[in-house]
């Protein structure tokens, strides 16, 4: 109710003037905004936009957002290492790479995200997290929540209910964190477990932690209540009115260039291509006819593309020319099941139409693609 | 190096000629000093060690995660240099100077220390060295300025130094053509613009394609009544185009296409086209669509085309065959695995519906739905993409009438379907009626398929589709 009426108040008079100027400048040193979208890419794009465009000298911003199911990896992480990509694809869970550092998290509507925008000089994560803890305690004084030295918020001293990450630019910075209200813990634990073996990389690893929802501690709590409590505390600390302005991440007039940013965050080059160089050393167990073949595979992947590939097949299992064609084909291509499938099935068109050969080829292809 | 220095050291009057510097560096240096009456004996460029500034929160070391530049690249102030990470915070380090990167002090994954040199930058001697301050010394651009630019619809990129120069000379940045990275306006763009305004004579730039647009329009041709007098001819200047060619390797879907089509070249293709009256089929589909929807399936025209093709292949099995490499043996394939060309975001992909000869039209529709959703999600498997024996390409959904499809080896035939158009045709009574017409273009391997076979197959396929009830007779 409060949100809706204020939304109208704020928008109507601004229709005639430049909506942007009116929207962004408010009285006081702070602004609280909430996204109307549940799309992870749109919301991440809003963070980018504010970070690059807003002058945070006079006012700081608190951005509140929630997403439909998505796995979000940190800027310098390896998605193959961090989550179960096959499961993600099956369950239609989105994969996004954010621009801040840190580890991998699972978002769904039972998780709320808070982003604190300040100037680079005023960047202070502990203060922000203490604000959140203060808000939680004000709402439910009996909650045992505190911030540890890893910038996590712990419930009952052992369960992680919030993780933190940050991005610093030349003049501005943001610190964002999650807060588990009522997320699906079962999906969370299954998607954040990678079945990958034999991966060597310098990408930032995630620290698995025991998690709990605030809802489990107190079933009367909802995401809306938590958002409201945190906004209230922020308003008090920044001496501004406690009202939350709604923002639509698809509004190009309010956020010029936002749709390009949203698109960029969805490209393969960003999500997968930004993975730091890694190598794979694993063994395919291929069941062929009545025996099991152990085939060693070694690959180097840079910018998400296969740089080097070595498959240790039994001699003459494939005609030698064909093996070379295979390696030549996938070298330089994306470490991606779709592209590899297309390339390898195309090669099959060009070799002699031999059923035996076809079944061997298909077996090898399927096993290779399973790695990706 | 010298090129860069020359650009910034000179005044408007002379040196725009970048080519001069290719030769003796030292000679030029001395001649410069004479003309500019420089008192300080400064070397060609000064190397400044750009130190990693304070990250905040008492952090003393970070890990270098990505370099955005390499040694030898030229950078402008505020360009991103690298990305470092410290304890869940990712920091973008930007350059404080305009210059050329001379040395990177760290490799990826190295630990970098706050207060120690990060990169060495060679800056212009004329600019001098900025005092050692925190990176965040220039006040951020006020939000009104930002808004103003955004309203214009595009952001004019320029460093503060360039902006100051423009302001001092009363130049609107939006009128200047930027030739730097991302259409950034460089100092020489301002100087070029100024030169045009004052009419100063400049030697022609070696880069002929970048010519600033003429500000004052030449006289427009006079009205016809003035034909008697001399008509001044408008001088059109080429419009400045700052685009650059981009070369990238052929990989992925494109590579697959290159391989397939190069192999297809070996096949001598012949084409055969015809027109199909789908009026009855359109009506039939309208009736069946809701039935299919009730079963949760989207029914397009393709399942009918595919089933009709399979019925045709039963009569002309040579179109469902494969020729071996030496053209010595023809293999007649038992299964009709009919491929359907699909256009996805990444490119062309051709999954096939297996064993159409034992599928009903509804079965085909179900399978097509499955393949289409997997195709758009990029999740087609190897079995979906292999084993095809005959292909149909419904290019008509995008547009077009007649086409010249390319056979996908090891197949020997392919059909391209144009769009369905409503056209006037004559019926048996000689009356004009509205007909739903679609064109089909077949291509076949002339080594084993002859024109007559293709034509007869096409006629049979056509008859099934023009009179769908006849399909009932032969449906297995």
UniProtKB/TrEMBL annotation, chain A:
Reaction(s) catalysed (UniProt annotation): N(6)-[(R)-lipoyl]-L-lysyl-[glycine-cleavage complex H protein] + L-lysyl-[lipoyl-carrier protein] = L-lysyl-[glycine-cleavage complex H protein] + N(6)-[(R)-lipoyl]-L-lysyl-[lipoyl-carrier protein]; (R)-lipoyl-5'-AMP + L-lysyl-[lipoyl-carrier protein] = N(6)-[(R)-lipoyl]-L-lysyl-[lipoyl-carrier protein] + AMP + 2 H(+)
Annotated compartments: Mitochondrion
First-tier enzyme category under EC: transferase
GO cellular component, one term: mitochondrion
Function per UniProt: Lipoyl amidotransferase that catalyzes the transfer of lipoyl moieties from lipoyl-protein H of the glycine cleavage system (lipoyl-GCSH) to E2 subunits of the pyruvate dehydrogenase complex (PDCE2). Unable to catalyze the transfer of octanoyl from octanoyl-GCSH to PDCE2. In vitro, it is also able to catalyze the transfer of the lipoyl group from lipoyl-AMP to the specific lysine residue of lipoyl domains of lipoate-dependent enzymes but this reaction may not be physiologically relevant.
The family this protein is said to belong to: Belongs to the LplA family.
BPL/LPL catalytic domain segment(s): 56-242
Pathway recorded for this protein: Protein modification; protein lipoylation via exogenous pathway; protein N(6)-(lipoyl)lysine from lipoate: step 2/2
Gene symbol of the encoding locus: Lipt1
GO MF: lipoyltransferase activity
InterPro entries given in the database record: aa-tRNA-synth_II/BPL/LPL, BPL_LPL_catalytic, LipoylTrfase_LipoateP_Ligase
Keywords: Acyltransferase, Mitochondrion, Transferase, Transit peptide
Enzyme Commission number(s) from the entry: 2.3.1.200
Protein name: Lipoyl amidotransferase LIPT1, mitochondrial
Any single biological process term in GO: protein lipoylation
SUPFAM superfamilies linked: Class II aaRS and biotin synthetases
Keyword Lyase in annotation: no
TrEMBL record, chain B:
Keyword annotations of the record: Acetylation, Acyltransferase, Lipoyl, Mitochondrion, Phosphoprotein, Transferase, Transit peptide
GO cellular component: cytosol; mitochondrial matrix
Subcellular location(s) of the protein: Mitochondrion matrix
Annotated stretches, region: Disordered: 130-154
EC identifiers of the protein: 2.3.1.-
SUPFAM superfamilies the UniProt entry points to: CoA-dependent acyltransferases (SSF52777), Peripheral subunit-binding domain of 2-oxo acid dehydrogenase complex (SSF47005), Single hybrid motif (SSF51230)
Function: The branched-chain alpha-keto dehydrogenase complex catalyzes the overall conversion of alpha-keto acids to acyl-CoA and CO(2). It contains multiple copies of three enzymatic components: branched-chain alpha-keto acid decarboxylase (E1), lipoamide acyltransferase (E2) and lipoamide dehydrogenase (E3). Within this complex, the catalytic function of this enzyme is to accept, and to transfer to coenzyme A, acyl groups that are generated by the branched-chain alpha-keto acid decarboxylase component.
Family that this chain belongs to: Belongs to the 2-oxoacid dehydrogenase family.
Protein name, UniProt field: Dihydrolipoamide acetyltransferase component of pyruvate dehydrogenase complex
Annotated organism of origin: Passerina amoena (Lazuli bunting)
């Amino acid at each position: 109710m409060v949100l809706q009426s204020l939304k109208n108040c704020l928008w109507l008079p601004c229709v005639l003037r430049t909506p942007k100027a009116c929207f962004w400048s408010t009285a006081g040193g702070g602004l609280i905004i909430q996204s109307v979208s549940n799309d992870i890419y749109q919301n991440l794009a809003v963070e980018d936009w504010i970070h690059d465009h807003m002058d945070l000298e006079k006012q700081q911003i608190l951005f509140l957002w929630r997403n439909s199911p998505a796995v979000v990896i940190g800027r310098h992480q390896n998605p193959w290492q961090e989550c179960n990509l096959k499961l993600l694809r099956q369950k239609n869970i989105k994969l996004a790479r954010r621009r801040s550092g840190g580890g991998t998290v699972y978002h769904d509507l039972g998780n709320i995200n808070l982003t604190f925008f300040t100037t680079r000089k005023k960047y202070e994560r502990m203060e922000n997290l203490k604000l959140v803890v203060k808000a939680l305690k004000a709402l439910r004084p009996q909650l045992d929540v505190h911030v540890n030295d890893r910038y996590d918020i712990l419930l009952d001293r052992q369960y992680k209910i919030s993780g933190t990450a940050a991005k610093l630019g030349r003049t501005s910075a943001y610190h964002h964190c999650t807060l588990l209200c009522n997320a699906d813990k079962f999906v969370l634990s299954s998607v954040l477990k990678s079945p990958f073996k034999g991966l060597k990389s310098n990408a930032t690893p995630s620290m698995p932690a025991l998690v709990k929802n605030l809802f489990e501690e107190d079933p009367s709590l909802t995401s809306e209540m938590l958002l409201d409590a945190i906004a209230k505390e922020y308003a008090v600390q920044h001496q501004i009115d406690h009202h939350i302005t709604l923002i639509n991440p698809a509004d190009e007039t309010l956020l010029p260039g936002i749709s390009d940013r949203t698109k960029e965050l969805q490209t393969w080059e960003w999500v997968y291509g930004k993975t730091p160089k890694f190598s794979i050393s694993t063994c395919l167990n291929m069941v062929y006819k009545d025996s099991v073949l152990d085939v060693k595979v070694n690959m180097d992947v840079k910018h998400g593309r296969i740089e080097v590939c070595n498959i240790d097949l039994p001699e003459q299992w494939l005609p030698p020319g064909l093996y070379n064609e295979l390696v030549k084909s996938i070298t330089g291509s994306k470490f991606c099941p779709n592209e590899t499938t297309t390339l390898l099935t195309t090669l099959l068109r060009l070799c002699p139409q031999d059923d035996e050969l076809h079944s061997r080829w298909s077996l090898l292809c399927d096993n290779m693609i399973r790695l990706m | 190096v010298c090129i860069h220095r020359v650009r910034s050291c000179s005044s408007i009057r002379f040196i725009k000629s970048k080519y001069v510097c290719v030769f003796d560096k030292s000679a030029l240096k001395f001649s410069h000093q004479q003309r500019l009456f420089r008192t300080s004996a400064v070397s060609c460029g000064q190397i400044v060690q750009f130190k990693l500034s304070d990250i905040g929160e008492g952090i003393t070391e970070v890990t270098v995660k990505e370099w955005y530049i390499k040694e030898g690249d030229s950078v402008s102030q505020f360009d991103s240099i690298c990305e470092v990470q410290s304890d869940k915070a990712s920091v973008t380090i930007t350059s404080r100077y305009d210059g050329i990167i001379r040395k990177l002090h760290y490799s990826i994954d190295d630990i970098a220390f706050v207060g120690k040199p990060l990169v060495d930058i060679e800056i212009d001697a004329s600019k001098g060295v900025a005092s050692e301050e925190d990176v965040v010394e220039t006040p951020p651009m006020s939000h009104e300025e930002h808004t103003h630019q955004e309203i214009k619809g595009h952001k004019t990129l320029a460093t503060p130094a360039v902006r100051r120069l423009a302001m001092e000379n009363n130049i609107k940045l939006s009128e200047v053509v930027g030739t730097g990275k991302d259409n950034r306006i460089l100092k020489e763009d301002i100087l070029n613009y100024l030169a045009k305004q004052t009419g100063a004579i400049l030697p022609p730039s070696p880069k002929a394609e970048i010519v600033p647009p003429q500000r004052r329009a030449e006289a427009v041709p006079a009205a016809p009544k003035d034909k008697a007098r001399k008509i001044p001819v408008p001088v059109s200047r080429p419009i400045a185009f700052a685009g650059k060619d981009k070369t990238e390797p052929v990989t992925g879907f494109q590579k697959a296409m290159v391989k397939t089509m190069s192999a297809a070249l070996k096949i001598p293709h012949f084409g055969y086209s015809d027109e199909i009256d789908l009026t009855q089929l359109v009506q039939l589909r309208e009736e069946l669509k809701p039935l299919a929807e009730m079963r949760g399936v989207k029914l397009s025209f393709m399942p009918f085309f595919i089933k009709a093709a399979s019925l045709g292949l039963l009569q002309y099995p040579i179109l469902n065959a494969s020729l071996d490499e030496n053209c010595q043996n023809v293999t007649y394939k038992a299964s009709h695995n009919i491929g359907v060309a699909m256009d996805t975001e990444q490119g062309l992909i051709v999954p096939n519906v297996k064993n159409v000869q034992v599928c009903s039209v509804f079965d085909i529709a179900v399978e097509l739905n499955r393949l289409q959703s997997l195709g758009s999600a990029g999740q087609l498997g190897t079995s979906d993409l292999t084993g095809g024996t005959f292909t149909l390409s419904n290019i008509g959904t995008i547009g077009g009438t007649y086409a010249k499809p390319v056979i996908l080896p090891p197949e020997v035939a392919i059909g391209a379907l144009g769009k369905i158009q409503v056209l006037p045709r004559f019926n048996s009574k000689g009356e004009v009626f509205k007909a739903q017409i679609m064109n089909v273009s077949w291509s076949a391997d002339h080594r084993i398929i002859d024109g007559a076979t293709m034509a007869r197959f096409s006629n049979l396929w056509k008859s099934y589709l023009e009179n769908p009830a006849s399909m009932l007779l032969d449906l297995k």
